[in-house]
Write a structure and sequence with these properties.
With 498 residues, the chain is an alpha/beta fold. The protein is 10% helix and 16% strand. The chain is built from seven helices and 23 strands. The longest helix is centred in the first third of the chain and has 12 residues.
């Protein structure tokens, strides 16, 4: 697998200059973002927009990315399996301490059993990896003495007990190394508590603590200005704030991912009034029911491009905290959150025009508020309402003139029966729409005008449909129209489709 941090085409000095860029690319590779649905991806691509939440659709289908029965994401990339070895190195000599000009040291997938303390004498070391060394029972404390270490990877060493890894990280955050470390990978270990002294690692910009057992964490504070933070697959119930309201500094934050933990509230650790826009915040796969401070009106909000709360099945209502805090959010993913209702006022706030796409699939919605229209959402390109419980077609988003793709697939009532029979009469009059997804419903006879501008139409798995394709037949024959249908369906007006 390509590792941008080990690009052999770059000189050592070039690697040093591009260190943050290359490690950012590596973190991107090993932490796939929560993906939205294919209709939303189509809507954004139609408008020339590229975000991490749609990148997998460049090479994969929706069925490959998502479990279509539950809406959960299938793709969960991992590093090398713990204990898989391809390096027979058993030890290092004490004389390694004489290599005072050594800058890079990588020991990975190794049978090594010990690392001498003389490692701490290597004052020029800037990049160190001690990765997947299952026979190394003690944390190499010499790491904490390195005054110029910029990037450290100590991941996939589950053989270290919780106390062993805690003591090792405490040494890193109190020794000479604390003033140097910018990038720290400590994923797939047995860490249960992050030392409070991490607040003193003020050069730290990228921190990967995914796949541990962390249940206790302390505020890093404003002075730890992170660009990338991954806390996925731990046991966190909260993200605490310091006296100034900071969990960490976020003026340069690009990605914060806290997926698959035990959070019951979205932490109040940002501020919509800050003017700082974060690229991605992801709290998917938790137990979130609401937002910290929303009941007292103290939730401060956030400014973020992509805000993801997918697979939090106890939410029940669309989060009003977004509107009440006047948060600025462009792409919202609320897939599989058990949402039954969108309260009035959810889309009437000063920053609501920032919303570009809305993924509400795999919920229990039966209607939409009337306020979901162009006056409040003038730049809404994609709306995803598939796998809900609409008995009548939800026309509200069609008032948004910039709406590019609209998806209302697979509507089912509480007993699992198909409940949507209504075709959106007059939809051909919408001049901005390019995709309409209505598959897996119970549509009947369709005599409405079918616009060739809506060049992608999914009517598959509607067993009782009678569809007149005469309006689109020529465009379909020329390859300028995509109709997703079943050969068993009653398609009339275009014999070439039979």
């Amino acid at each position: 697998t390509y590792d941008p941090t080990l690009d052999s085409s770059l000189s050592l000095s070039e690697r040093g200059r591009m260190r943050l860029e290359n490690h950012g690319e590596l973190l991107h590779m090993i932490h796939p973002a929560t993906q939205t649905t294919e209709p939303i991806a189509r809507a954004l691509k139609e408008n020339g927009i590229s975000i991490r939440a749609i990148e997998m659709y460049d090479t994969m289908s929706e069925k490959e990315i998502l479990n279509m029965a539950t809406g959960e994401q299938r793709v969960k990339l991992m590093d090398t399996n713990h204990g898989t070895l391809c390096n027979g190195l058993l030890s290092l000599p004490e004389e390694i301490g004489n290599l005072t000009r050594l800058e890079y040291l990588y020991i990975a997938n190794s049978a090594i059993e010990s690392i001498p303390e003389e490692l701490g004498l290597l004052t020029s070391l800037s990049d160190v990896e001690i990765y997947n060394c299952p026979n190394l029972t003690e944390f190499p404390m010499g790491l904490a003495q390195l005054p110029n270490i910029a990037a450290l990877n100590i991941s996939n060493n589950r053989q270290w007990s919780a106390d062993e890894i805690y003591n090792g990280l405490s040494a890193l955050s109190t020794g000479p190394s604390k003033k140097a470390i910018q990038i720290l990978y400590c994923r797939q270990n047995s860490l249960e508590e992050l030392p409070e002294t991490f607040k003193d690692m003020e050069r730290l910009t990228m921190l990967d603590l995914a796949y541990n057992k962390i249940s206790k964490i302390y505020p890093l504070g404003k002075n730890v200005e992170l660009m990338q933070l991954y806390l996925d697959n731990n046991r966190l119930t909260s993200l605490p704030k310091d006296a100034n309201g900071y969990f960490c500094g976020y003026s340069g934050l690009e990605t914060m991912s806290v997926k698959n933990n035990l959070l019951e509230e979205v932490p109040d650790i940002f501020d919509a009034k800050s003017g700082i826009v974060i690229k991605s915040v992801d709290f998917s796969g938790n137990r979130i029911k609401g937002f910290e401070g929303e009941k007292s009106g103290k939730y401060r909000g956030l400014n973020v491009e992509t805000f993801t709360l997918a697979n939090n099945p106890e939410m029940k209502e669309y989060p009003m905290a977004i509107a009440k805090s006047n948060s600025l959010v462009a792409y919202i993913i609320l897939r599989a959150c058990g949402i039954e209702k969108i309260p009035a006022g959810a889309f009437t706030y000063p920053n609501s025009p920032a919303l570009v796409s809305l993924d509400l699939s795999y919920n229990n919605l039966t209607d939409l508020p009337r306020e979901l229209h162009a006056a409040n959402l003038p730049y809404l390109y994609g709306v995803e309402l598939s796998y809900n419980s609409f008995e009548h077609f939800p026309f509200e988003p069609l008032d948004c003139t910039e709406l590019t793709v609209y998806s209302v697939r697979a509507q089912r009532d509480k007993d699992g029966n198909r409940c949507l029979k209504e075709w959106p009469e007059g939809v051909a009059n919408h001049k901005g729409l390019r995709g309409l997804y209505l598959g897996s419903n119970d549509l009947r006879r369709i005599d409405d005008t079918i616009s060739t501008l809506i060049y992608y139409l999914d009517i598959s798995d509607n067993p009782n449909i009678i569809f007149d394709a005469s309006d689109i037949c020529y465009a379909w024959m020329q390859g300028a129209y995509i109709l997703i249908y079943d050969k068993s369906q009653n398609i009339i007006g275009c014999d070439y489709m039979l």
